[in-house]
Amino acid sequence: VFVPAGDFTMGSPEGQGNDDERPQHTVYLDAFYIDKTEVTAAQYQRCVEAGACSAASTGDACTYGEAGKSDHPINCVDWNQAAAFCQWAGKRLPTEAEWEKAARGTDGRVYPWGNAWDVAKVNSWESGPRTTAPVGSYPAGASPYGALDMAGNVWEWVADWYDGGYYAQSPRNNPTGPGSGSTRVLRGGSWDTGSNYVRAANRNGLTPDFRLDFIGFRCARSP
């Protein structure tokens, strides 16, 4: 889906969200495209078969190679595997700012669909299947640009290093995160998290080598 150039409101105001989401600030981004859905297990399998990606982990609730889950988001992949897939596909991981704009638009809304919590629009812990769902299973939860599952289903790796204090020093135009770090940013919450974690502004960070059944990704590219 296409996300036009322009300003958007990033982060959360005082009294809302977590400390690492503040200060709320205005960010300008150049235009970009972002995948409408999370990368699926079938798509990732093609990258493995092409020799450009290493196999995802299997077992438990992992989707790689599992019968009946080819249209579920790939999970159990680490940050480097996500980045390798996007490169193979002629894309890249979105920046944290790109991800947030694609998820919430320009009006600072709390969730992709608006400000009011609606359990029917997201695969979260409250009413979901307590595991991954096929991508795009919650079309009513689409973002203003038409991106699906920006809330819930699986957490999504993005390009940036994580720094809880980064917003206080983030550049206004096209921020790309800290120059280094020990953890990478994850966005969007998952089937394993509740309503507070699937907010569009919520941030999380894990070491890049984590492979968990509630972590996947989507790709982006410049026009």
Question: Could you please describe the fold and organization of this structure?
Answer:
The protein is α+β, with helices and mostly antiparallel strands and 223 residues long. It is built from three helices and nine strands. The protein has helices at 41-49, 79-88, 96-104, and strands at residues 2-3, 6-10, 25-29, 32-34, 155-161, 184-187, 203-206, 215-217, 220-221. The radius of gyration is 16 Å and the shape is globular. The model has no long low-confidence stretch (mean pLDDT 98).
Features:
three-stranded antiparallel beta sheet; 223 residues; alpha+beta; four-stranded mixed beta sheet
Topology:
Blueprint: E1 2-3, E2 6-10, E3 25-29, E4 32-34, H1 41-49, H2 79-88, H3 96-104, E5 155-161, E6 184-187, E7 203-206, E8 215-217, E9 220-221
Parallel strand pairs: 5-8
Antiparallel strand pairs: 1-4, 2-3, 4-9, 5-6, 6-7
Low-confidence stretches: none
Content-based structural category: alpha+beta
Query: Percent of residues in helical segments?
Result: 10-25%
Which shape, going by the Cα principal axes?
globular
Based on CA atoms alone, the radius of gyration comes out at 16 Å
Query: Whole-number average pLDDT?
Result: 98
| Widest beta sheet: strand line-up | 7-6-5-8
Largest beta-sheet characterization: 4 strands, mixed
- According to DSSP, the number of beta strands is 9
Strand percentage lies at 15-25%
Termini Cα gap = 11 Å
What series of H and E elements makes up the topology?
EEEEHHHEEEEE
**DSSP helical segment count:** 3
